[in-house]
């Protein structure tokens, strides 16, 4: 689908909005809803809002929910320099700003706000949910729950020399950052032997899943090498015990990038959390498992935000059964 096709797909259904986070302008898509509920969405590491959220945001909005899908600072259309850098403290602050902004949107009940993220942002969901009593529900899809565990597993899919080169580039980038040098960038994903953040087999599905036919040519599939090191030591799953809002964790059993086991462990530590397990790799919810993932997540949002029973979707192909542990600026352009 071309960019013109995407414009037509979302014509009239969303508007561009802007809000501030620590003095930096963040840019988001706002999809007005009809039922009072709102889902705030952010994509995985260095993935921008369109490839990372369009597919799910459209379905949530069709179910009646408002959606606010934003770019973190330093990424996409949001402000902040230098670019392509991920800093956990900044991104968590961006979540707090997005939650506060969403509560001011027309038709949004501030008591019916949910958060959604996948991969790295799925990990952020755990921390944000633990720290933000006002969040009504949270969805973590194939979340990065334990960076060191995931990094140790991922290194098995990289060649030793390439792993050393990637690490060295990260260290050089971190040192350069201390003296104000521009970031040294590496690819988000690549084949074993290349200098890339990820070389796991399912990481190579990322472009097919998020950017089929290069429909999002503006998406820079690169990240500052220093940020890859930071992600590898991030452990948001440690915040699980402090989560009190309803939580849905969707884990894919063959996930080689974020790994299912740490995500499952988080779900089992959160009182009343719901866990949906499905076959496939890290990007299965965007590919062959999309209908299954959407049905589970829309059902969860209806029950937890609206207190209603799910309505079967006409596109439903399967019936996943969650397990439980008991100043505003707008633009209406299409992109």
Write structural notes for this entry.
The structure is a single chain. With 335 residues, the protein is of the alpha/beta class. The chain has ten helices and 13 strands. The protein has helices at residues 3-10, 49-62, 88-102, 120-131, 147-154, 160-178, 206-210, 225-231, 260-269, 290-306; strands at 15-21, 24-31, 38-42, 66-70, 113-119, 137-143, 185-189, 196-198, 222-224, 247-252, 274-278, 323-324, 329-331. It has a ten-stranded mixed β-sheet with strand order 12-11-10-6-5-3-4-2-1-13, with helices on both faces. A hairpin with a 2-residue loop joins β1 and β2. It is globular, with a radius of gyration of 19 Å. The model is unreliable at 310-321 and 325-335 (pLDDT under 50).
Q: Summarize the helix and strand pattern as letters.
A: HEEEHEHEHEHHEEHEHEHEHEE
The pLDDT mean sits at 91
Strand % is 15-25%
Query: Which strand order do you get reading across the main beta sheet?
Result: 12-11-10-6-5-3-4-2-1-13
How many strands, what sense, and barrel or not for the largest sheet? Answer: 10 strands, mixed
What's the count of strands? Answer: 13
Number of helical elements: 10
């Amino acid at each position: 689908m071309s960019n013109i096709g995407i414009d037509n797909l979302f014509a009239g259904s969303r508007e561009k909005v802007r809000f501030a986070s620590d003095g930096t302008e963040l840019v988001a898509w706002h999809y007005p809803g009809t039922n009072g509920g709102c889902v705030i969405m952010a994509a995985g590491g260095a993935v921008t809002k369109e490839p990372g959220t369009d597919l799910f945001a459209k379905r949530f909005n069709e179910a009646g929910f408002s959606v606010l899908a934003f770019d973190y600072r330093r990424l996409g259309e949001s402000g902040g320099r230098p670019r392509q850098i991920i800093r956990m403290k900044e991104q968590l602050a961006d979540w707090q700003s997005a939650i506060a902004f969403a509560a001011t949107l027309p038709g949004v009940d501030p008591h019916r706000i949910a958060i959604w993220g996948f991969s790295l942002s799925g990990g952020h969901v755990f921390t944000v949910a633990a720290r933000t009593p006002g969040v009504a529900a949270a969805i973590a899809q194939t979340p990065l729950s334990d960076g060191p565990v995931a990094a140790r597993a991922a290194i098995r899919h990289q060649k030793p020399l390439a792993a050393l080169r990637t690490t060295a580039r990260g260290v050089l980038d971190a040192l350069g950052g201390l003296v104000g040098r521009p970031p040294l960038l590496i690819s988000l994903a690549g084949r074993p032997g290349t200098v890339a953040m990820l070389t796991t087999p399912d990481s190579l599905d990322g472009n097919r899943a998020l950017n089929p036919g290069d429909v999002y040519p503006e998406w820079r599939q690169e990240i500052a090498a220093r940020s890859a090191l930071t992600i590898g030591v991030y452990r948001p799953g440690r915040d699980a015990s402090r989560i009190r809002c309803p939580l849905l964790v969707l884990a894919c059993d063959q996930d080689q990038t974020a790994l299912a086991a740490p995500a499952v462990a988080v779900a089992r530590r959160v009182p009343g959390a719901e866990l949906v397990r499905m076959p496939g790799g890290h990007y299965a919810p965007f590919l062959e498992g999309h209908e299954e993932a959407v049905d589970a997540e829309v059902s969860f949002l209806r029950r937890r935000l609206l207190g209603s029973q799910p309505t079967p979707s006409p596109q439903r192909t399967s019936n996943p059964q969650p397990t439980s542990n008991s100043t505003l600026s707008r633009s209406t352009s299409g992109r």
